[in-house]
Design goal:
The chain has 91 residues and is of the alpha+beta class. The protein has a single domain, classed as tt1808, chain A. It contains two helices and seven strands; from the N terminus they run βαββαββββ. It has a three-stranded antiparallel beta sheet, with no helix packed on it. A two-stranded antiparallel sheet has the order 4-7. The chain has a two-stranded antiparallel ribbon with strand order 5-6. A hairpin with a 2-residue loop joins strand 5 and strand 6. It is flat and about 45 Å long. The relative contact order is 0.18.
Length: 91
Amino acid sequence: MVQTPSKTLTLDEFLKLPETKPASEFVEGRIIQKPMPQGKHSTVQLDLGADINRSLKSQHIARAYPELRCTFWESIDVPDLAVFYLETDSA
């Protein structure tokens, strides 16, 4: 990851900034721009996400999302692949 030198920001200040390509993450008050993925990385990311969705989405268990911006407490991460458990009503 490449860290851009800058002053420490608040989460609200970061959220007001325009989106960047590649995506920027916000960790401990600092902006960290993700590196551009290369071909092999993108292929694995795409294939893994498709496999997860093919297997688990149809059963309403989980769903995979590539490069989804996720906010956790005071940090914003953009993981290569985020997998979310799908809650279902047991009634």
